[in-house]
């Protein structure tokens, strides 16, 4: 039996409703199509730090491997200045479409505790994508520190209050040492420097007693006999100094601080775009090649989920807020 077609009058009556339904479906289809194509052009990776450092190196390694995985160029752009605020603000104001991303460091999370009116907010103004890599920093001491371990530095600081100094080239380093003071009861005093090499010069010269450094960068000076490693700040020992115990192993359980690099997108980036980037980063960071390249730069490849990175951000912000408050550090 043949089906009867609707009468012309009925078809005319249904036409407005069909048009309305199609208009509602069109944006959904377009959105799904756009999400399915992501990424279909170059991604800009903003690094709010100058070229040449560890963060810049790891950003460029990630950009190369991530671009290969996603099959689009990932272009690194250094936008340094204002304690990372210039580059971060550029990303915060970018269109949240996944084509402008922020590659920054744990120092970015510490900045609001140190700089008055610091914007944008590292926790609230971005969507976290992944924790990329971490650095298991070491506590470097002058050769004059007795015993060659953390205990000698703590005892010296307690015996000579106000006369034992740590060199800090950044606000994040200052917060780590103030946390060490609070945990150990030592009273190490800060001396601020414009750069890490300047602090190293005074460590070697014996004018400063301690500083913080990445294990790879500390290795050369220690092997040359110009300084010693007193402890490892992180949760595990550093491969470069396997015989040096962590701070926790030296009598302060629960202490474990690592610096890190992470990847953010502007707030409001579609969930499916964040998920695509997250999955790509996790896959890339798990490869033996990436682990080897990061290790050569003195870093440990991580590649976390967005949720894990978000928790790390909140935990870091809470810790540094507490440390700053107890140390009486006011944003300047």
Structure commentary:
- The protein has 332 residues and is an alpha/beta fold.
- 46% of the residues lie in helices and 17% in strands.
- The longest helix has 30 residues, at 8-37.
- The model is unreliable at 1-11 and 16-35 (pLDDT under 50).
- The protein is built from 11 helices and 11 strands.
- It has helices at 8-37, 54-70, 85-92, 106-114, 150-159, 171-184, 196-205, 215-223, 271-285, 288-296, 306-327; strands at residues 43-47, 74-78, 100-105, 126-135, 138-141, 165-168, 189-192, 210-213, 228-232, 259-266, 300-301.
Please give a quick description of this structure:
The protein has 332 residues and is α/β, with parallel strands linked by helices. The chain contains eleven helices and eleven strands.
